[in-house]
Predict the 3D structure of the following.
Amino acid sequence: MKLHTIDTGFFKLDGGAMFGVVPKSLWNKTNPADENNLCTWAMRCLLIEDGNRLILVDTGIGNKQDEKFFSHYYLHGDATIDSSLAAKGFHRDDITDVFLTHLHFDHVGGAVVHKGEKLSPAFKNATYWSNPQHWDWAVNPNDREKASFLKENILPIQQSGQLQFIDPVDGIAFTDEISIRFAYGHTDAMMLPLINYKGKYILYMADLLPSVGHLPLPYIMAYDMFPLKTLAERKAYWYEAVEKDYILYLEHDPLNECCTLQQTEKGIRVKNVFKLDEI
């Protein structure tokens, strides 16, 4: 097995929304905001070479939305899915599986592209993986979350016949070396791959831990649908990560790709930060 970081660029979101009830005087120390109170966030995907499968975890925001949509998110950076795949010696047509942690636009936007007037899967040879519980949540969204579930990002996957569902059972096997963990506080049935790699376990955090700056338990995003559930999940996962010495892969941290955790007098905090290729 080989793992590769796939950078797809950066975007900006409101710092207050990203840290919920936590005062700016606290979160601004770790994730400084600009003059518009916006913080920079990565859209860092993961490529897994596993036997004869080439698995891409999440796809970034994509490029098919209109100028007005993108004007809200201040996309920047030179990296794209295509350039990052090419740097590792791959093309999007080599991807056999696209694993979608959840269907918010910054995770699934790159899964679908314009082909002429038609919207089609960006990875023509891939099976796309979601789960029925989250899929139903996304295609029948609540009023609070529907701005994050864009039908043009989601429905073409199903219409193509390339969509497959995973049973939402915590710890279910995806491959011999990858099991799937679930979290329900950010959005219903978000999937987190747990990867057995070089004698270590790497947990892909998606939006359960956006950045190292979110490690204190109450630092929960305002975007989370069920914050008390998120709180309970984070507490359980943090203790598990310390006990089992997990490496956490960070999708949105603008600086840090991976971290480990440790127990301190202030609670569970970061132990080490490092790049994926340093493992």
